[in-house]
Amino acid sequence: MAYQNLISEIKENILYVTINREKALNALNKDTLAELADVIEFAKKTEQVRGVILTGAGEKAFVAGADIKEFSDYNGKQGEDLAKRGQDQVFNAIENSSKPFIAAINGFALGGGLELAMACHMRIASDNAKLGLPEVTLGLIPGYGGTQRLTQLVGKGKAIEMITTANMITASEAEKIGLVNGVVPQADLISKAEEIMNVIKQRAPLAISAAIKSVVAAVKNSDGYTVEIEEFGKCFETADFKEGVTAFIEKRKANFAGK
Ligand code: CO8
């Protein structure tokens, strides 16, 4: 498969997918999301693929979020559509996959990047990784399932703290609160993910699929996702959103007016 923004290859029944926009810290633009949707579908229908390891190119970032430059002039409807399409085709598609996805978090996992990692069934982080949901610094909230999946993984109190402060946490803090399954030196990241996947590969594929489906069903609250999409769309109508993204692009501190 030839992609513009992804590198993908199958080795020993594992599909390796690397998001490859290193200069933009692997930020998720529309094209990358479309390619991710395609590769997820490929994984689903290709019998040879028993599981997927997802990572980011380079040593600095897994994914630093949705591409802020692309959605800076969106209105509420466009924001809602983008969140809905992304959730359906990428984030929910990963979570609902019958084959396990492991996120190998090799650096910053922020905003949509952390949401992508949280949609995966497991997360291994390198010891230099930083994780966070900084959307409120842009006058937004997470729109790719982050308010739901972070709450499911770490509980309400910690989720609200992370989302409202927008503070990043280290890999070891993330491990302590259950946000990642393990932390290893960056050089060992992929081999750690492979170690887990190689064990799963020895188990019964249909049972793996049934197990994933059952565990995912235990934490699903589809109404919460709908609320998030609507609230996310509304953020695009605010002056604070315009100020937040303009400040990011102009590399200055945002001055929010609360409207
Ligand atoms: N989008 C676009 N470009 C980005 C992004 C991003 N999310 N993150 C980094 N970049 C670009 C920078 O603009 C910069 O480009 P250039 O060299 O052309 O100026 C390049 O990557 C390198 O970044 P920095 O120079 O900023 O690197 P630093 O080491 O100084 O800082 C940080 C690294 C801390 C990761 C910093 O880049 C940063 O804060 N990035 C933004 C993080 C962020 O706010 N992410 C959340 C985005 S919002 C989101 O994900 C919403 C999800 C839901 C969306 C639903 C549909 C829209």
TrEMBL record:
Sequence intervals crossing the membrane: none
A Pfam family annotated for this UniProt entry: ECH_1
Classification via SUPFAM superfamilies: ClpP/crotonase
Keywords, ordered alphabetically: Lyase
Family: Belongs to the enoyl-CoA hydratase/isomerase family.
Name this polypeptide is given: Enoyl-CoA hydratase-related protein
